[in-house]
Queue: 2 jobs
Job 1
Amino acid sequence: MPDILEILLARYNYWGFIILMMIGLYAMISKNNLVKKIIGMSIFQTAIIFFYVSISVKLGATIPIVDHDGHSADIPAINPADFVNPLPHVLMLTAIVVAVATLGVALSLAVKVFQRYNSLEEDEIYSQINENKIR
Amino acid sequence: MSQHLPLLIIAAPLLIALLISVNGWFYQRLSFPLAVLGLAAPLYFSIELLFLVLKEKVVVYKLGGWSAPFGIEYRVDSLSVLILALIPAVALLNLLSNQQEIENYFEKKTAGFLSLYVIFVSGLSGMVVTGDVFNLYVLLEITALSGYALVGAGKNEAPLAGLNYIFMGTVGASFYLLGVGYLYMATGSLNMADLSAILPSLHDSKVVLFAFVLCLVGLFIKMAFFPMHSWLPAAYSSSPPASRGLVAPLTTKVMIYVMIRISLSVFGADFSFSHTILKESLVWISSASIVFGSIWALRQKTLSKMLCYIIIAEIGYMMGGFWLGNADGITGSILHIINDAVMTLSLFLAAGSILYRLKTDELSELKGIITSMPITMGVFILGGFSIIGVPPTCGFFSKWYLIKGALQADSYVFVAALLFSTLVGVVLFFRIIEITYLTSSHHDGHEEPRSWVNVIKEVPLNMLIPLVVSGAMEVLLGLYTKEITLNIIKFALPAGY
């Protein structure tokens, strides 16, 4: 029992992102409303952003800006342990842009769906489609 | 100039796409020539790269002059160069063939569509040349986002199918991104060449295995591999014909290329093929994909839906061939990526022409069109023969390699699946030939004098020429299989194969 607790506590960032990711996946699979599905998709993507940001954390480290006036040649010796890893943050900037663009495309398609079927509920849309097929 | 080729192949279409959309506000008529330029330029660059790679084997480009592990590297080698040339070629043929279709369908929004079209091609080429796993993700999403819009622009159920495509595509891309995250945690690098140097020392690491599986699952969703395939027929069959001819032949094939690239160039053949359970179960699932794809194709009542299910069966070919894990299997898989793109292109172009003439592609409505559209149907049947695997069409040779590889690996399930789909292919296409030979069922009283002039109602020349070119490409690729395999694909195989 203490082992499990230890695993849960020592790796809490992973548990956090997995739970968030599953909430998003659940919403995408089981929600009936298309906009709710899109929200689920957004949560799903955000979970991965959290994961990336959390792996760059170092205890006691600070932002990666080297204290240096920019003119003198003597750059102070840099200890990597003093600075958090900036790369995952930079990667996630790109991923956030991608996520926003995906959200935009998804919402615009949702608008088109609404214009066509006058509904955003998936079951109503499918019953409309089936009715059209029978006619 | 020549040292910038790997970048130009992406940058040129990207900039031209921007130009098309800006120009669309002022002078619509220029958008089509611009789009043609935006695809012809990368085609020219890629052919030049092909000769360069034949000579030097690998062309490396450092983006912004930053050297490998820190900067992004673009790398063209024997594995990527053929697919790189194929992408703009397929896109250009499809664009030329669909000029009237696009202008009729999108009217005032033609510029927007063409701009997306060119961005899509640029993203696909980018995925093929990039040597950086995160850059690959970004280009994957560039391709996917333009692809969602291209697919969702269709009529009827297209927006809904597009939305489902977004959900699936995003989950796939996110899994891939997560896999890259784990890979970065284990190695601290994102460059493919650098990763492949670090990873052998982490051969037993569970994090690396997890990263591998996550990347694969993400790509499986993206390529519509068997259990995750359901978005593909829905999305492709309701999309506008112009985007169907672009998205259907290229997306899945490039995704399979990406999977091969990740497995061979990042994780390495030794690691990828060392997990026997994974390898064997993937061959089994591929066989299932082939069998079910073929059966579903048989059940469809429209031409476009049928072709979509054929694509799913074809994905099984390439996946199974690769995961056999021997030289013949991998060769067959890479060869089939190229052949299948050309095959599906010519089938979709022919289906597009039929749709253009008849305004429907219900199989039962195709009666008699072999006399009214002999050239279109000729190319369609040629494409069908290629899918079945009749020599000298290209489909025969890749299937030959796949079966040879399967026999070598003692994977009789895969052999059986390949033979089964061949049989189903025969039924599928001969059924269509039979329908198209039947003369029109509704008689209108008086018999018209049947002369060639009255009967033939072919599509316009600009649709016919790309169609014939794609048909010729099938035969040429088939005839030059030996040259392609010995001079290019042989060098794409991992060391020791």
Note: The beta strands of chain B are 59-62, 73-76.
Job 2
Amino acid sequence: MSGQADERLACGTELGALIDEVADGPDPGRQAHERRCPHCQPALTDLRRVWGQVRELAEQDVNPPERLVARVIDAIRRQGPPREGTALALEDVVPRLVRHARWREARGTTRIADAVVAEIAARAARRVAGVHDLARGAARTGVAVEVDGRRVTVGVRLIVDYRHPDGVSGVTVSVRDAVIAEVEALTGLSVAAVDVAVDDLHT
Amino acid sequence: MVVTVDDAHLVAAARSGDVPAFELLVARHQKRVFRVALRMLGDAAEAEDAAQDTFVAAWRALGRYRGEGAFSTWLYRIAVNKCLDRLAARRVTEPLDDRVASAIGGPEEIAQGHARFAALIRALAALSGEQRAALVLRELEGLSYEEVAAVLGVTVAAVKGRLHRARAELVSQMRDWR
């Protein structure tokens, strides 16, 4: 394959220079010549047409496969934390299996799936003024729940309304109160902690 | 409109092991990483693998990313290197047509896109890996010369020279196929 960078038109203009112009925009120093040149004009027209393909391809929307994010996350979970990493987020230590809060009462045992607790927490959080929505990852609900007997720890990731009068910290306090009240009232579980993370702001 | 937390904060969280923070980064950048890999490799399945390799390598190397320059530039560099490794490892040249078929995008896009871009994608595949990288970053991703230089770790003058040759070669190839 031999490039055309050194190829010259009959007027002495390098073809490569014309290609650069078509890609990058006109070169003011050359325009006086090109406008009059019977060799440059048709070459430029031809090159613009060829280069139009490149522009069109650049505009084309390319979507990665939907499974890509999940594939990456699965792979890095197998890897463990990055080299410098130490702390683990709540969602890290909660396996993605169904877990149950479970306890024994006088006339039998009760168990509540963590997904049920998560759904209750999610609804409670969404109802709080200033919460725009829960922040979702690829396949996540925005809520993580860790159960231990009759105690439960809840993690919530939020998108908060930017200009809410309570401020971001005020909204997170309300979310914590709402989640604790709702989960305890509906399930009888004891909420040990609600970890709130604000990932995005809505304006 | 949702104003997202900037990459630097997510990187800081991810570096301390916060997987969901990294997941947000992957979701945010997957499109450009996959797109570069697809244009570099000309093969959708291989581009997916290269994109995964890129993010896994980024995760492992987060501690070395110091926030000098955009996170996207850093990711581009990893992605280009992963693709160059794959191109170098291709010992037997596979029939180009098989690759061209999957290079256009998702399966449903192939039918319309194939005929229109086949010549260009063939021409891209004929360039050296280094020329292709410069061309993809500048002409398809729309990066500035300075950004391309930062991704490739070379000077702006070197980028200009490489692009000059790559463009001429590309046009030459496209004319041959016409």
Note: The longest strand of chain A covers residues 190-202.
